[in-house]
Design brief:
Sufe protein. Chain: A
Length: 169
């Protein structure tokens, strides 16, 4: 079996048996992204536990490339820190914009290397990146949400402390 056939098999396997598919709770952010050139759509949720990505769940409609790519994203991102996930995103993004001339880092991208051939087809790059851009957007929103709730919790704790100290003077 040649490498291209193997890559096609990996993509088809992730398409037919998607990892992480189905919207789940809890989550800190939910986004909906659409690829207007082909009609692919994804609703993606991110659940963070501090800086760790605890879950990425999604509902996707579209081509095998966009759906398989999001399945691979789930495998590569869940269980990593947000910064590690962003590093994986950068590697995948470089692969997609390398026009098929970049040797993918298999240690980082694992099954994501199967999308190396997709980079040769400009019309398909957006398909492969749809879930990844949705993940980046959702993580950004989740970080803002968790930072805001941490600040609100701190403010509440401070006001509770201030209220309880008012009668002690």
């Amino acid at each position: 079996m040649d490498v291209d056939s193997l890559y096609q098999e990996i993509i088809l396997d992730h398409y037919k048996h998607p990892h992480g598919a189905g919207l789940r709770e809890p989550f800190e952010a939910e986004v909906h992204h659409v690829n207007p050139t082909c009609g692919d759509e994804i609703t993606l949720r991110v659940h963070l536990d501090g800086e760790m990505v605890s879950d990425v769940s999604y509902a996707a409609e579209g081509c095998s490339i966009s759906r398989a790519s999001t399945s691979v994203l789930n495998d590569l991102i869940v269980g990593k820190s947000v910064s590690e996930g962003m590093a994986v995103l950068d590697e995948f993004n470089q692969l997609m914009h390398g026009k098929g001339k970049i040797d993918p880092n298999e240690d980082v991208l694992e099954d994501g290397i199967a999308f190396a051939g997709v980079a040769q087809f400009p019309g398909r790059i957006k398909c492969a990146l749809l879930g990844w851009m949705a993940w980046k957007d959702a993580v950004s929103q989740a970080l803002v949400t968790t930072a805001s709730s941490d600040t609100a919790s701190s403010d509440t704790a401070l006001s509770d402390t201030s209220s309880s100290n008012e009668g002690t003077s």
